[in-house]
Amino acid sequence: xxxxxxxxxxxxxxxxxxxxxxxxxxxxxxxxxxxxxxxxxxxxxxxxxxxxxxxxxxxxxxxxxxxxxxxxxxxxxxxxxxxxxxxxxxxxxxxxxxxxxxxxxxxxxxxxxxxxxxxxxxxxxxxxxxxx
Length: 132
Description:
By secondary structure, the protein is α+β, with helices and mostly antiparallel strands. The protein contains 2 helices and 5 strands, in the order ααβββββ. The longest helix is centred in the first third of the chain and has 28 residues, at 11-38.
């Protein structure tokens, strides 16, 4: 007794259908793996942002307002507009000096197109004077 598909498809059509199904599944699996690999973790995204600001950011002066746990709070002015910002430095603790009380004036790097995007500390640069 011939198979169920034999009533509708020839052998060549059955093979073609099976190969097309396998190819579809393989392409879907490759696509899912590529999509998962392309997703950037938040820590890596933040590291890239800091690296971009170190490479292309403008420098300015800022005032360190407060350090609370792993956050640095600072203020700075760009073209007459004053910004208050904070930076999470939990991954950069080795670059922070032991005594921040004397470091009220700090350097800041900011994006000229978006001055609110700023940092005072990165892997290869520090606005905390005397830190690196």
